[in-house]
Design goal:
This protein has about 400 residues and is mainly α. The chain has one domain: MFS general substrate transporter like domains (Growth Hormone, Chain: A). Helix content is about 80%, strand content about 0%. It is built from 16 helices and no strands. Helix 5 runs antiparallel to helix 15, helix 10 packs antiparallel against helix 11 and helix 12 packs antiparallel against helix 13. The longest helix is centred in the middle third of the chain and has 33 residues. The two termini are about 25 Å apart.
Length: about 400
């Protein structure tokens, strides 16, 4: 399932990787570039209430297969037909539906097939595969751009979901849902989730975490291009920045798995609260690194990725463990709606901060941009502090 998730995400970061090419080619403002970035999560947010919740009633394997098809369609459509802002918006939305059908339904397909004893660790490995998928996507887009043009890069990325869907079909046996395990309420009844304070503490913490994470990933390549551009041609800076973004994503894998192991020992809630606070402190440092040698900026971004991702698996495992009986799919749907709804808005908010510089991006502008990202995590910290039960 981890390998399938990575294959489904080969196009996840393609737009972000190629943004330094697409933004000037289409004369996009930073705000417009942020809207295109966030539209992926808008598609996710619209589709996930149905696609995640319905896994309480049908085998999640079927939903993941549908998600893989949409993921491939969104990439092919972008590569063949996108000509500017509105075309990019359309196909990013379709790709977001694909992500909604693969990520949380994939987690449900996994947790339905393993014992409760192994779930916390399995969730950590699976959620960490999201970062591996991001890293592979950054790397694939960077190398594809060296060999061909940006449209072909999107078409190459579309091969991943196609292969992932085939692998899922061949390797994961169907599973029958027992009638007694199905919820008695209608498919969109999320009340049992909303009234559970402990669940909602983790859900809102995830919203703050996800907003910060995807704001950072949306603007990571442009930030590194800004830092690397001195003494380099723009094209070379793009490829270097893409490779560095790959490394930043990969370090998050170690952080997520390691963070979950620490959380299992010292307490999940305590660890998440500390991690959210530390990531805010690090965000205040990253923007200043743009004025320093490129390797310093890369190290700063790696440290930021390390602290942002440390609590990712722990937050999701907390929500899964706290889910009301019979409503695990509904809990994952609410978890994703809030998380990726925040991710939809956060890249645009950072784009607005960057545009506030009046078109001349400076180190100071990046300081405010990264500070804005860190503040998003603080919102999640406050929610978990107020709603989450101590010791969970």
């Amino acid at each position: 399932m981890c390998v399938i998730q990575v294959l489904g995400m080969t196009g996840f970061a393609t737009y972000w990787s190629l943004l330094p090419i697409l933004q000037p080619a289409w004369a996009l403002s930073n705000e417009q570039a942020g809207w295109i970035s966030g539209t992926l999560f808008a598609g996710y947010m619209v589709a996930v209430p149905l696609l995640a919740t319905i896994t309480d009633r049908v085998d999640a394997r079927l939903i993941v297969l549908i998600g893989m098809a949409f993921a491939a369609l969104g990439l092919v459509g972008f590569g063949l037909f996108a000509e500017g802002f509105w075309g990019a918006i359309l196909w990013r939305f379709v790709a977001g539906i694909g992500l909604a059908g693969t990520y949380m339904p994939g987690l449900r397909a996994l947790t339905d097939r393993i014992s409760d004893r192994l779930q916390a660790r399995a969730v950590a490995y699976y959620t960490s595969s999201f970062s591996i998928g991001s890293a592979v996507s950054y790397m694939l887009a960077g190398y594809a751009l060296e060999l061909t043009d940006w449209r072909t890069a999107f078409l190459i990325a579309a091969m991943g979901p196609a292969v992932g869907g085939a692998l899922l079909w061949l390797c994961l046996a169907p599973r029958r849902i027992e009638m007694a395990a199905k919820p008695t309420t209608h498919v969109f009844d999320f009340r049992p989730v909303f009234i559970d304070r402990n669940v909602m503490g983790y859900v809102l913490a995830y919203a703050g975490h996800t907003a910060e994470l995807f704001a950072m990933r949306s603007w990571l390549v442009p930030f590194l291009v800004f830092s690397a551009a001195a003494g380099s041609t723009l094209g070379r800076a793009e490829v270097d920045a893409t490779v560095m973004a790959t490394l930043v994503s990969l370090i998050a894998v170690v952080s997520s798995v390691g963070g979950n192991e620490i959380a299992m020992r010292i307490g999940r809630r305590r660890f998440v609260l500390v991690a959210l606070g530390v990531s805010f402190a690090v965000s205040l440092v990253v923007g200043f690194s743009a004025a320093l040698p490129f390797w310093v900026a890369v190290v700063a971004c790696m440290l930021y990725a390390l602290t942002i991702q440390a609590d990712s698996a722990s937050i999701t495992a907390g929500a899964v463990a706290a889910a009301p009986a019979g409503y695990r799919g509904a809990t994952m749907a609410v978890h994703s709606m809030f998380g990726f709804g925040a991710a939809f808005l956060s890249p645009t908010l950072v784009g607005v901060v960057l545009d506030s510089a009046g078109g001349s991006i400076t180190v100071t502008t990046w300081v405010f941009a990264f500070g804005t990202m860190g503040a998003m995590g603080l919102v999640g910290l406050a929610a978990l502090l107020l709603l989450g039960r101590r010791g969970t």
